[in-house]
UniProtKB/TrEMBL annotation:
UniProt name for this protein: DUF6282 family protein
InterPro entries: DUF6282, Metal_Hydrolase
Species for this entry: Pseudonocardia zijingensis
Pfam family of the protein (one): DUF6282
Amino acid sequence: MEPSPTVARILDGLVDMHCHSGPGPFPREFDHVDGARDGQRIGMRAFVAKSHHHNTVMDLRAAHRSFEGITTQVFGGIVLNNQVGGINPYAVEMCLRMGGKIVWFPTFSSRKHIEHQEAALAAGFPRSAVPLTTVPVLIHDDEGRLRSEVVQVADVVAETGAVLNGGHLHPDDMIELFAVAAQRGVERMVASHPNFITDLTIEQGVSLAERGVFMEHEVGMYLPEDHQHFGLEVLLEWIEAVGVERTVLASDLGQVGRTRPVDAFIEVTTALLDHGVAEKDLRRMLVDNPTYLLNLD
């Protein structure tokens, strides 16, 4: 798919904070290098490679020679699921001090995701190609107190200026996490696909945005052919309520058989433009906000 001149202008410098390039236990349509090469089609400045199961900084370090001559940068991060030891401040420390940009709290290992999982699989959610044990990773101890490791992770995120993402936590847990993180000095906080799995209400999203949390919506969920499709009116409602100042558009793509991120960004940006969203507002959500969050300037 080729963008119109207007859409090409909007997407120039795009930063995707949520790309599922491979390798990983889930089958992926492309690897990190191929994703970067494809990103050049629209002048993508950068993306963050996200794996639910491992620290992707090490992938990128190992493949650094393969990125020579490619203008799209790729950054890594870590998701605090079972496979990295859950809420493991030591794994976070290594990831961020080696250049990682985002720490996601539990996704597949969150209590909320596990509750949602059977319905998600029935709807076509991807399955791991290898058997993996999943048990809930909780942010509270048996007495209901916030685990000390949560604070340790927040401290490393604050120290390095990285992004703290709420993962797939329950809304109550996510709200508490962001409050504690802000108290510890974390300045960059994000909630991914707030209306999917985590099921934040718009009112909760607005409240978090007022406290500095960005709502990240995934263009892959607003494609008519996608099995997790939401109508564009849902996205427009969230943008109107939260404001472009605290909204980010990312892809959440890379799964086998789904649209590539570049094409999804073209399609959804075109649709939003056709629905009256201003060019400057689209650039704020696609370029300026994620550039700030990843501290690229």
